[in-house]
Amino acid sequence: MKMEGETEEMKAMAQVQQQVEEVAKAFVAHYYYLFDNSRASLVSLYNEPNSMLSFEGQKFQGANSIVAKLSSLPFEQCKHNISTIDCQQSGPANGILVFVSGNLQLPGEEHPLRFSQMFHLLATPEGNFYVQNDIFRLNYG
């Protein structure tokens, strides 16, 4: 009997991990689509006043402040090419940690920039997710 219970628990854990991965992949696709095509629309993915962004060591808090920073970057167009997405369930509040690595291609630049970005997504009472924490770094070398 104990083996059956462990098997059911393992199945349940695998199902949760699959759901976490589906949410993470859908979030990543949506986030970078908005970043590349309609950066101001990213405001809907953050929470005012709680969300936090660390961008190359600079810190910003609140959806409006975060999107103001992202909108002020010295390029209007770009294309993110995602290499990897790693994710884990986070804490008792059904959060999700998402770690992304990839390349950022800027217009007129021959070589793409490598980047890493970490998101901590938290669930809303309605069953959606928002970005609580966002850490972005270019990878040099």
Task: Give a short summary of the structure.
The chain has 141 residues and is α+β, with helices and mostly antiparallel strands. It has helices spanning 2-37, 63-71; strands spanning 52-55, 58-61, 79-90, 95-105, 113-123, 129-139. Strand 1 (52-55) and strand 2 (58-61) form a beta hairpin.
Describe this structure in words.
- With 141 residues, this protein is an alpha+beta fold.
- It has one domain (1-138): Roll (Nuclear Transport Factor 2, Chain: A), CATH 3.10.450.
- Helices cover 32% and strands 38% of the residues.
- The protein is built from 2 helices and 6 strands, in the order H-E-E-H-E-E-E-E.
- It has helices at 2-37, 63-71, and strands spanning 52-55, 58-61, 79-90, 95-105, 113-123, 129-139.
- The protein has a 6-stranded mixed beta sheet, with helices on one face.
- It starts with a helix and ends with a strand.
- The model has no long low-confidence stretch (mean pLDDT 94).
- It is found in: Cytoplasm; Nucleus.
- It comes from Araucaria cunninghamii.
Briefly note the CATH topology name.
Nuclear Transport Factor 2, Chain: A
Give a quick account of the main beta sheet: strands, pairing sense, barrel closure: 6 strands, mixed
Helix/strand/pairing class, anyone? alpha+beta
- Distance N terminus to C terminus? 55 Å
How many separate domains? 1
Number of helices: 2
Radius of gyration: 17 Å
Please provide the count of β strands: 6
SSE string? HEEHEEEE
CATH architecture assignment: Roll
What is the highest CATH level, the class?
Answer: Alpha Beta
What strand line-up does the widest sheet have? 2-1-6-5-4-3
Tell me, rounded to a whole number, the average pLDDT: 94
Helix content: 25-40%
Low-confidence stretches: none
Beta-strand percent range: 35-45%
Give the overall shape, derived from the CA principal axes: globular
